[in-house]
Amino acid sequence: MLPDYRIRQRDVLLEIIRTITQELDLDRVLEKILRISVEILNGQAGIIVLPGGGLMDSPSWRIAASVGVAPAFLKSLETILREIPQTEDPRRLLLPEIDRRLQQLTRKASQGWLASLGLPMETRGAVVGAAYIFRSGPVRFSENERALLQAFADQAAVAVSNARLFAQVREEKQRLDAILDSSAEGIAILGPDNRIQRFNRAIARLSGISPEKAIGALHDDILRFTAVQTGRTLSQAEAGGWPLSDRAMLYLEADLVRATGEPLSVGITYAPVFTQERSLLNIVAGMRDLTRFREAEEMKDTFISIISHELKTPVALIKGYASTLRREDVQWDREVVEDSLSVIEEEADRLTALIEDLLDASRLQAGGLSPNYGEVDIPRLASRVAERLARQFPDRTIRADFPQNFPVVSADEQRISQVISNLVSNAVKYSSPESAVEIHGAAAPDEVTVTVEDKGYGIDGKDLPYVFDRFYRGPETAKRTKGAGLGLYLAKAVVESHGGRIWIESQPGKGTRASFTLPRTLEGKSSLPETGSPHREGGIKP
């Protein structure tokens, strides 16, 4: 049987090992190890010294645990330790230097410590600190006691190493959590059984499903797809043997079925993560919203279709009439020539207007559509637009009717004329020949309102939210008239660049009211005089 002293040593070491495996608080572990060491080695006091910041590259040392040391003496000892620099091998400088300074300090402080034993705390070949035990008597420490303290010190080193590893893991987890939660891309991490382990905010927003509901659930129960456009779903790929390697990326473009039941066009990439033993550890899924990409693709296709059609028609007419007039085998009378040239001129004007609209749309996207402000008499401007369009559409009634003393506003006259022209042109195009088109206005203290009204076909309710979108033309509208779908888009941009608002009210079969507002003055400018316009009614009535 082992002597009682050896049994006690064994039990103490087992207790220390249990403490290390069960306790995560490093200070409490070190204090317990130190207290046991002082007790079993018949010491009066002890300290455990670690690098100042907990890392070996810290510039100084600190006391991590102490037993039997008076607070005042401990403070003096901490001051001494901060003056001792770090070295690659603390055994060569730290222990002898502490021993030398402690001897001086204990004599001055009358602590009565006549013997001390200091040993490095080592783990995996690296020194992570030092343990010191002090005695008041002159009895020196034996080799057995030295070996025992070294065992205690090594266990303390293991505790320090474990604490550092735990702190690093915790920091890495916090860093990973921050990256995942702040990522604009939706990210889900799946286990090898396809159950969701992580579900960040972005993918929760895309799917409409909370992380609490998603975590622990199967992938296919949370992320369901329809209308697959590119690639295979995860279950289809796995049925075919995916993944075969860590580079076997899987990409899918489809409609995600959201919690609300509405589909969302997304692209999702699956990347497998393997262990060193080549077994599947995780699958990382990254999801992006492709709605804007799809809209851009559709807009591009719409643009190409509309512009090719809108350009082709006038060019074909111009070429046809010009070729006809150039024929040398026919003598055309004056009336035919005039009619042909009139068509050529009209179609050239259409081309010019289309090109101008395209240029304005391009300037708008580039942020170059800025108003050139001046004083604008809205009633007079509306009357000129009405007269010009009445000549263009001689079979239509176009009237401008504004109240007396309508205020002058600060605006870009050319751009506002463009807005009114677009609204009136639309009213003429989308109303019956017998329907009159009226332009009228109202003044408020801060703004004026201009309205263009017709009694025409009206706009279908499902088309109203999109009438100001670039290139948008409702199905019925596209059947009735030609156009590129830029007029209202540009009108909205012009009005909003002035700080105003534009809206449309319509009922199918009863007509449409298109209205916009303009501020009476620019911010920071004095109020403009409310000068009355001499012409309050305008237009030509057939």
Keywords:
542 residues, alpha+beta, 6-stranded antiparallel beta sheet, 6-stranded mixed beta sheet, 18 strands, 45% helix, elongated
Strand percent estimate: 15-25%
The N- and C-terminal alpha carbons lie at a distance of: 127 Å
Whole-angstrom Rg? 43 Å
Approximate helicity band:
40-55%
Number of helices: 15
Determine the structural class based on helices, strands and strand pairing: alpha+beta
Q: How is the largest sheet built, in terms of strand order? A: 6-5-10-9-8-7
Name the shape in a single word: elongated
Look at the structure and give the mean pLDDT: 81
Query: Which consecutive residue ranges, at least 5 long each, have pLDDT under 50?
Result: 524-542
Largest sheet: 6 strands, antiparallel
Strands, count? 18
Q: Would you give an account of this structure?
A:
It is a single chain. The chain has 15 helices and 18 strands. With 542 residues, the chain is an alpha+beta fold. The C terminus is likely disordered. Strand 16 and strand 17 form a beta hairpin. Strands 6-5-10-9-8-7 form a 6-stranded antiparallel beta sheet.
